[in-house]
Amino acid sequence: MSDPLNLTVLGAGLPAAFTYLFQHLDRLVERRRARRRSTEAELPAELPIELPACLDGDPGELTPDPAVMDELGERLDALYGRLAFYSLDPGRLDPEDPQLADELGELRSLLEAVYRTRLTFRGEPREATGVRVDVKAIDIQGKVGGVVVQGQMPDVELDSKVHAERVGDKGQVIGIEIDTTGSGGR
Fold first, then answer.
1. pLDDT tens-digit readout, 84-128
2. pLDDT class for 153, splitting at 50, 70, 90?
3. Higher-confidence position of 168 and 41
């Protein structure tokens, strides 16, 4: 079970936060429907979703994990059905509505799982928006990297933890590796 979204922390930002989260949900639900119809290639180009001022940081480009999206698909569809009511009339958004807080908390949790990125709003007592990677390995004989960036570094907060029980003589464990030269060298 996910934690409810603290709607009072959002204050006047509630409509923008709702719109941001719901637009991502709408995009995922439409993408799943297109995949089931085998028409994903026919999806129109996706317009960028505007970051609300109440979001604590920029998550960068959000790319869904298809396997997680499929695993959580029924929950995404059900949540879409419950939240569409508010999308049709944002005036119905009530910061005192505990059901809305629960559903937006669940939505954020599902989006974070699908996108593998934290989505935190200003004033919330949780880790900032950004990418977090946890890698657990038993026996590393080659190279393992939690986050490897080649080319332009996105303007996001990265948090990487790599846990290894054993690292062989030629093994390498790298939490975050960034090469902005584009040459592939380190």
1. 999 999 899 999 999 999 999 999 999 999 998 999 999 999 888
2. low
3. 168
Q: Is the pTM of this model over 0.90?
A: no
pLDDT of residue 186: 45
Question: What is each CA distance from 66 to 32, 60, 73, 144, in whole angstroms?
Answer: 9, 18, 10, 23
In whole angstroms, give the CA distance from residue 84 to residue 138.
45
From the number of C-beta atoms within 10 Å of its C-beta (0-12, 13-18, 19+), residue 33 rates as middle
Distance (Å, rounded) from C-alpha 6 to C-alpha 112? 16
Coil vs helix vs strand at 98: helix
- Cβ atoms 108, 21 nearer than 8 A: yes
Contact (Cβ atoms closer than 8 angstroms) between residue 79 and residue 106: yes
